[in-house]
């Protein structure tokens, strides 16, 4: 049976670190007295015909730029709009209360306070926060947080928080196991098995967070037997052309990076300029979007070598009924992305949980009980089967599966095999969030 991919959390933690390279000031945390709940841990169940209220926290106006984090929110709202048009949940419409935390810890705590204490939401859905400072408050209030993006370590730290990729960690208030999280090597195994890759370049900035993630990638590659070429560029004045020339000279089959989206575009342009041809320029789910032609407009060769890996079905796979429903409901959106599809899946997950509460009413406790029992959940086939297990010891190895797509001009993101068949038994490597 396919299992969740623990390394997805690693990639999202890395994405956050790279965004923080841009100088984001995440702010301080509000005093705990501002969030006293007076023992109230549950919102009342909606009576007949009343709406079921959910909250969505998004760093929509974060300093790293507009639309960076809005995909999951947009996908979730599209699902709920479609659901309400079809009668809601047992006759109850879903009322979405969205809150923009501005990408700061203070803003995040404010959103948590507003949604939980003032708006009395039953659950949070598709949280996408640059600094999830209010995570402990959500957990202490026993509010289920469903299908959030694990940008930080919150979803491997706190009970009642259920990230979109699941968790194996004890979630007892400490990240992972004694502060360590674990990620697998299945991405590297895939390219070795499917593409015969043997040499991989890892490009990073001379900055602590970037360098730390690059070291993690390097460790994973070496565990899979790759020759690793490391390229570090100056963050303030990056010489991507020199890095591109060297990785060409070293004969790199693959290129991984620990740099931001703008830097990636510059790197690809430099690779085209020096004639560096690689089997794959590998990116993650956050960059799995329809904006590739604009983002990489100056580098057609590199653009068509872009590959993305993830744990959800390619949003371009319209031959799949579940994907087709998502695309039909999001026709009005200017762009599409894998994060939108995952937000849609998160909203579906909440809906399935709420529907299980027909006898007791839709309460926080009932929804949380459904989530806590979740095992091999797929959101109608949109997700690699997700589970929540509290393992006392970290896994040494794991059978994990991944979704893989390649960008091709004129076709978009083209799936490479089925995500429930791209499966590997791989070692789990520790890292600190």
Automatic annotation (TrEMBL):
* The entry's keywords: Signal
Q: Which residues form the signal peptide?
A: 1-27
Return the Pfam families for the record.
Peripla_BP_6
The Leucine-binding protein domain, residue ranges: 51-410
Q: Any keyword NADP? A: no
Query: Which residues lie within the region annotated Disordered?
Result: 32-51
Q: Which domain of life is it from?
A: Bacteria
Annotated PROSITE patterns: PROKAR_LIPOPROTEIN (PS51257)
The UniProt entry, under InterPro entries, shows: Leu-bd, Peripla_BP_I
Among its keywords, does the record have Signal? yes
Q: Which family does it belong to?
A: Belongs to the leucine-binding protein family.
* Protein name, UniProt field: Leucine-binding protein domain-containing protein
């Amino acid at each position: 049976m396919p299992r969740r991919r623990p390394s997805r959390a690693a990639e999202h933690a890395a994405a956050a670190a790279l965004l923080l390279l841009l100088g984001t000031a995440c702010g301080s945390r509000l005093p705990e007295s501002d969030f006293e709940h007076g023992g109230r841990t549950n919102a009342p169940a909606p009576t007949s015909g009343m709406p079921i209220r959910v909250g969505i926290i998004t760093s929509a106006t974060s300093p790293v730029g507009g639309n960076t984090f809005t995909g999951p929110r947009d996908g979730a709202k599209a699902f709920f709009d479609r659901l309400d048009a079809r009668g809601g949940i047992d006759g109850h419409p879903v009322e979405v209360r969205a809150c923009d935390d501005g990408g700061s810890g203070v803003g995040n705590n404010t959103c948590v306070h507003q949604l939980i204490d003032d708006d009395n939401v039953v659950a949070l859905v598709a949280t996408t926060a640059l600094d999830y400072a209010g995570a402990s408050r959500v957990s202490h209030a026993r509010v289920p947080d469903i299908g959030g993006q694990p940008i930080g370590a919150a979803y491997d730290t706190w009970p009642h928080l259920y990230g979109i990729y699941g968790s194996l960690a004890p979630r007892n208030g400490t990240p992972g196991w004694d502060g360590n999280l674990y990620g697998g090597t299945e991405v590297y195994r895939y390219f070795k098995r499917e593409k015969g890759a043997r040499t991989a370049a890892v490009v990073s900035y001379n900055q602590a967070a970037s360098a730390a993630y690059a070291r993690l990638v390097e460790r994973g590659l070496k565990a899979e037997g790759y020759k690793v070429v490391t390229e570090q560029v100056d963050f303030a004045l990056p010489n991507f052309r020199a890095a591109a020339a060297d990785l060409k000279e070293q004969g790199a089959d693959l290129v991984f990076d620990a740099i931001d989206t703008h830097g990636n575009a510059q790197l690809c342009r430099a690779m085209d300029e020096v004639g560096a041809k690689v089997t794959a320029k590998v990116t993650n789910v956050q960059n799995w979007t329809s904006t590739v032609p604009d983002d990489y407009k100056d580098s057609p060769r590199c653009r068509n070598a872009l590959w993305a890996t993830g744990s959800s079905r390619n949003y371009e796979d319209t031959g799949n009924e579940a994907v087709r429903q998502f695309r039909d409901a999001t026709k009005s959106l200017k762009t599409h992305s894998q994060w939108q599809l995952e937000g849609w899946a998160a909203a579906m997950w909440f809906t399935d949980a709420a529907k299980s509460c027909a006898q007791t009413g839709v309460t926080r406790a009932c929804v949380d009980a459904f989530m806590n029992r979740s095992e091999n959940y797929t959101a109608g086939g949109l997700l690699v089967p997700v589970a929540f297990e509290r393992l006392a010891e970290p896994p040494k190895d794991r059978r994990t599966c991944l979704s893989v797509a390649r960008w091709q001009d004129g076709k978009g993101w083209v799936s490479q095999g089925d995500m429930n068949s791209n499966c590997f038994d791989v070692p789990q490597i520790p890292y600190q969030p």
